[in-house]
Amino acid sequence: AQKVTQAQTEISVVEKEDVTLDCVYETRDTTYYLFWYKQPPSGELVFLIRRNSFDEQNEISGRYSWNFQKSTSSFNFTITASQVVDSAVYFCALSYILTGGGNKLTFGTGTQLKVEL
Amino acid sequence: ETGVTQTPRHLVMGMTNKKSLKCEQHLGHNAMYWYKQSAKKPLELMFVYSLEERVENNSVPSRFSPECPNSSHLFLHLHTLQPEDSALYLCASSQGPGNRVESYEQYFGPGTRLTVT
């Protein structure tokens, strides 16, 4: 069974602080993909990053960075120098291919990030 | 602009009404999805269509009836809903079928906020 755990329900930080969002996953598949999505108040889920199970290199994109560690089944997301516009709900998700086509995303419960001035 | 549109954005309906949610994707994808997002709960996958065939149905009550007339359009027909069906309904699309990396990514629409009175 697939499972994604985001233990942090809500995080509040002051602007310019760094913040790390945790994600722990469970799967028996050897090939899988992990994702982070951002959901601003408007409701739409915005794709941030994809990481496959064979690539454990950390990735940095501007103020965002991701730390994938297969040994601990974790895929954590760090925002450096947070800004008010980063305020949103962030979801970690695990994907596998369906035999009939398409794929199935299992989402965590999300972490509400509030960045205040 | 993610290329996935949903209408209406907001819907209020009584328990005896019949209504439909519409989703359209402009990304050339072959798989489409319906998700339900309720407060304090993870996103729940409801239906998956690949090449216009339903490939996943996650024990969704029959009062929700999906329809996929072509690879660009997806509908969710609603009838005799219950107040607990009030939620944000999200549509997504992805490439597929296949094991290409891109097949794992889903792109979401802005959602329809449904309130059942």
Polypeptide structure, described:
The complex is a heterodimer of chains A (117) and B (117). In chain A, 0% of the residues lie in helices and 55% in strands. Chain A is mainly β and 117 residues long. Chain A is globular and about 45 Å long. Chain A starts with a strand and ends with a strand. The model of chain A has no long low-confidence stretch (mean pLDDT 91). Chain B has 117 residues and is mainly beta. In chain B, strands 2, 4, 5, 6, 9, 10 and 11 form a seven-stranded mixed β-sheet that branches. Chain B has a four-stranded antiparallel β-sheet with strand order 1-3-8-7, with no helix packed on it. The radius of gyration of chain B is 14 Å and the shape is globular. The N and C termini of chain B lie far apart (31 Å). The mean pLDDT of chain B is 89. The interface between A and B is medium-sized, with 27 and 35 residues.
Write the layout of secondary structure elements.
The complex is a heterodimer of chains A (117) and B (117).
Chain A: E1 3-5, E2 10-14, E3 19-21, E4 24-26, E5 33-39, E6 46-52, E7 59-61, E8 64-69, E9 74-79, E10 88-97, E11 103-107, E12 111-116
Parallel strand pairs in A: 2-12
Antiparallel strand pairs in A: 1-4, 3-9, 5-6, 5-10, 7-8, 8-9, 10-11, 10-12
Chain B: E1 4-7, E2 10-13, E3 18-25, E4 31-37, E5 44-50, E6 53-57, E7 64-70, E8 73-79, E9 87-94, E10 107-108, E11 112-116
Parallel strand pairs in B: 2-11
Antiparallel strand pairs in B: 1-3, 3-8, 4-5, 4-9, 5-6, 7-8, 9-10, 9-11
Order of helices and strands of chain B: EEEEEEEEEEE
Poorly predicted tracts of residues of chain A:
none
Uncertain regions of chain B: pLDDT < 50 for 5+ in a row?
none
Q: What quaternary form is this?
A: heterodimer
Globular, elongated, flat, extended or rod-shaped: what is the shape of chain A?
Answer: globular
Major sheet of chain B, described briefly?
A: 7 strands, mixed
Number of helices of chain A: 0
Q: What is the count of DSSP helices of chain B, taking H or I runs of 4+ residues?
A: 0
Helix content of chain A: under 10%
SSE pattern of chain A: EEEEEEEEEEEE
Strand coverage percent of chain A:
over 45%
* Rg calc of chain A: 14 Å
The gross shape of chain B turns out to be globular
Terminal-residue CA separation of chain B: 31 Å
What is the radius of gyration of chain B? Answer: 14 Å
